[in-house]
Design brief:
This protein has about 100 residues and is mostly helical. Helix content is about 50%, strand content about 0%. The model is unreliable at about 15-20 (pLDDT under 50).
């Protein structure tokens, strides 16, 4: 079997980006509220890396504890957070913080 020249081996299409999820939802609402990740983290009493992780789709299990604050500070819809979180956590649902 012949191998392809090096310049042709890397011509495979890039994988499609993930569908927008809860992280993108949080990012979009944070930006619409004119808040930096650091500012939102401070309002929530969190470290900036947690907000960064959320926006990259990591550590989303902690979102429900902060849902009411997210709704207040970035004008996110509670049902939007709940639906997206449910989808990303594979249907495992816990009550959102009031």
């Amino acid at each position: 079997m012949e191998s392809l020249p090096a310049h042709q081996e890397s011509k495979m299409p890039a994988p499609a980006p993930p569908a927008p999820g809860l992280g993108q939802y949080i990012r979009d609402h944070r930006k619409a509220a004119n808040l930096s990740q650091l500012q939102l983290a401070q309002l929530l009493g969190l470290h900036q890396t947690i907000v960064s992780d959320w926006e990259r789709g990591r550590g989303l299990g902690s979102v429900p504890r902060h849902a009411s604050s997210l709704v207040a500070h970035i004008k996110a819809e509670p049902e939007g957070i709940k639906r997206l979180w449910w989808d990303e956590m594979g249907g495992y649902l816990v009550p959102l913080a009031a």
